[in-house]
Every structure is written in C-alpha cells, then in structure tokens.
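Methods — Computational structure assignment.
A single polypeptide chain was analysed. Its primary sequence is given first, followed by the predicted tertiary structure written as structure tokens.
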Amino acid sequence: MSFVMSALLDKLRTSTRLARRVPVEMALGVLVAISGSLAIEHPDAYGPGAAELIFAAVLTLIGVLGVSAFYEFGGIGQPMRWGLTVVVLGAGGAYGALVLDVDVASELWRWQLLLSGGVLGVMALPWFLPPNVGAPRSTEAWLLNVRMGIRVIVAGLYSGALSLGTILGVMVFNSLFELGFSATVYAHIATWIFAVGGVGLVATGLPDLVDEWSRQSPSVSDLQERVVYWGAAFLAVPLLGLYLVILYTYGGKILMTGEVPSNLLSPLALGAALIGLITLFLIE
C-alpha cells in the first residue's frame, strides 16, 4: 500500500509541476468556474454578466492555449510567448468588455465564428512548426491535430466520469447526514470539475504531445501508461478519497449517536472497495 501511495504522490507532484507551466490557462479555467458558479447561484443578478465573462474567457483560453502550444513545440521563444499571451488576454478582455452582448443574437453568431476561427487557428499551428523528420509535412500536421482532438475528447470523458462519481458521493453524503443540499450544489461540482479539471488535463498534456511529435508515433505501451495514469491520478484517487471521507465521517456519527446505519452505507462501502481495488490494479 505504501508503494501505491508513493507512486500516486509522485504522479500528483508531476501534475502540479506541469500545471505551473500553464498558469494563464489554469487561471482562465478558474475564472470560468467562478463565473459559472455565480450564474448558477444568482442567475438574475449575475447571469448575463457571467455568461459574457465565460464566453470571452473561452475565446481567450483558445488563443492562450494556442500560444502555449506554439511555444512548447519550439515555434517561438519564451519572451515571445508571454508577449503574445498578454496581447491575447488584452484582446479577449476588450472584446468581452466592449463588444460582447449575449442579449443580441447576432453577437452570439459572431462569437461562434470567432470560436471556430480560434480553433482552426490552433489546428493550423503544425504547418508553421519546424519540419519533423519521418513524415510529410501535411501528414505530421494532421496526426498532431488528431492527437490534440483525442486529448480534448478524453479530458471531457474523464471530467464527466469524475463529475458523476463526485455528485453521487455528495448525494449519498447529503442523505446520510440529512443536510438538505440544494440541486445547485451538483451544478457547482460539475462546473468546477469541467472548467478547472478539464482545462488542466488539456493544457498540462502539451509536453506529451511534444514527445509524440518528436517520435511521430507513440508506442502502445506509452498510450496504455498514459490512460492508466489518468484513470488512477485524476479519477480513481479523488473518488476513493471522497468515499472514504464519507464512510469514516458517518462511522464517527454512528459511534457518537448510536444511530442505526442507513441502507445507503452498504452501496457506498462496496463502491469505495471497488474503486480501491481498481486504483490498486492501475498502479500495480
């Protein structure tokens, strides 16, 4: 068990180190999460303003991520990276403050066009990178785009699975302790996991893409290791921790009050045990 914890802590330290390489992307993810929570909790007071902030932040995030990708692949140096990042942040902020109006239908169409243009711009970046040995320029560029697309999809799937597992755990916690959580709590959970966790998985994966780009095609063992690492570090461990906290907290309540255990306790214990076995299998 100590080996498992040591391996997980090492992976988490690596993830933290990678997150420090993309601080602007992580900050924008947090900004989207805060705006989403404000809109969920106070839709009348903050809804339109939060929506405009989210729309502007998403556009800005695409641009900043493109700049970071160009830097990681060696297309620009560090001073140019931060200079372009400041330009993108300024442009995104100006657009959100001076132009964007979610109440105007035509402005939403313009936002969609800008978003599409930003995505296409990021997809065009491989054609401006130094040529790589081993494949024609068009082939290696499309392969890189496919890998980037797969990473975005997988990050979305992991975020969805983690959101579902976390929401189920909180629902059980709410029922066991009769806390009376409102439905908005679950919306907050999903918002933060997708906005911060999903963005983090995509942004911190740039070094992996650089490694694949340099070798043209990762081995099957590399792909398997990456999938296992994501499953253990970002899905199984958080859910296992949450379920164990709920179990021990409720166990303490039973000892102090003499309350008869709820029927929800057995499924929760089985779920924690299953996740624990999966985590142990993935790490081993």
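Note: The mean pLDDT is 78.
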